[in-house]
Amino acid sequence: MREIATSDGFIRLGQFLKLANVVESGSDARALLEDGQVQVNGEVEERRGRQLQRGDVVTVGDADLRVG
Length: 68
Fold this sequence. Notes:
The protein is an alpha+beta fold. It has one domain: RNA-binding S4 domain (Structural Genomics Hypothetical 15.5 Kd Protein In mrcA-pckA Intergenic Region, Chain A, Roll). It has 2 helices and 7 strands, in the order E-E-H-H-E-E-E-E-E. The strands form 2 sheets. A 5-stranded mixed β-sheet has the order 1-7-6-3-4, with no helix packed on it. The chain has a two-stranded antiparallel ribbon with strand order 2-5. The relative contact order is 0.31.
């Protein structure tokens, strides 16, 4: 599991996916979310604006990313 550091421990899902280099743009993030390819804490998430906090785990494909 890879930990991705955030400045204050809170970040929106779309921004987190860009910070983690999973996607290059917000539209790429939207496509992944609409296809059901992103999970937050084990549940499929479709909202790009979902607020994440320190300790949340985002899964994309076989990659697990923890908000740090």
